[in-house]
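Hi R.,

Here's the chain you asked about this morning:
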Amino acid sequence: FWCVLLALPIFIIQFVLPSIPAADSVLSHTLALQVTVAELLELLLASPIQLYIALPIYVSAYSAMRYNRRANMDTLITMSTWTAYGYSLVVMFVRTWDNTFDTEVFFATAAYLLTLIVFGRWMELAAKSKTSAVIEQLASLQPTTAFVRVP
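And the predicted structure, written out as tokens:
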């Protein structure tokens, strides 16, 4: 739930507000250290997703590598989101002393990916809980006694 609340403003910043001239001029305004308002907002909104909400995914990836010595899907998610997030942090850091370094940041990519993964896992859990309830209802319909018909 929190992922969607944090990722939705990132989506609006990236895709909706640039089509409004007044909002685009505010978002593209460069602040100190050569960071635009849009990049700073994306960093602030994507960081809780990356650092807190996705923590169970990181723990699962670490456990898989540490104890099973095997990569799983969580390892792939961890590597890809941290690559996008870390690269974006490096880009913002390099821009502080090199004004010609004009490269895109990918905070939104990491946030979108984690949001979709967490939302998908939530939907899977909801489906499993409903399935368990239906199976329990079916089990309650099972008769306690049965007659065997011998031919």
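The mean pLDDT is 90.

Let me know if you need anything else.
M.
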